[in-house]
Sequence to fold (158 residues):
Amino acid sequence: MKKSITLFFLLVISCAVYSQSSVRQKTLVQKDSIKKSKMVIQIEEKKLDSLVAVLGVFKPFKKAAHASYYADKFNGRRTTSGTKFDNNKYTAAHKKLPFGTKVRVTNEKNGKWVIVEITDRGPFVKSREIDLSKRAFMDITSNRGSGGMLVTIEVLNK
Fold:
């Protein structure tokens, strides 16, 4: 009788442990699939930028222009063009360039560049020429603590 009770408890404990471990594995698989889908989206965006760079010719617009980036408080607000602003996209604000214009912004110190689309008006400071989204700014800056840098602006000719 003691052997059958002991065997029963061992069976119950092993079933409980097995069921808990299978639930953990399912949640891990779901988290991994979500991470993989996010990685795919980021890679596709970078491919799109490089594709535009290959297909187009850039015309110099301004050298030694001062660039800054949007503050986080503007995330989710409407831009002048009517689109919703997202700090994780490659967008920018310029005083005169038309909306939808693709612009290559190159950091003059390190040569890194990014292609952004003009979706807003600004910056409303006389010394600044262009406001970049935070993602675009951080991709090309050499000092992540700085709020501005000197850039070269080139407009895409289609």
The CA atoms of residues 64 and 150 lie 5 Å apart.
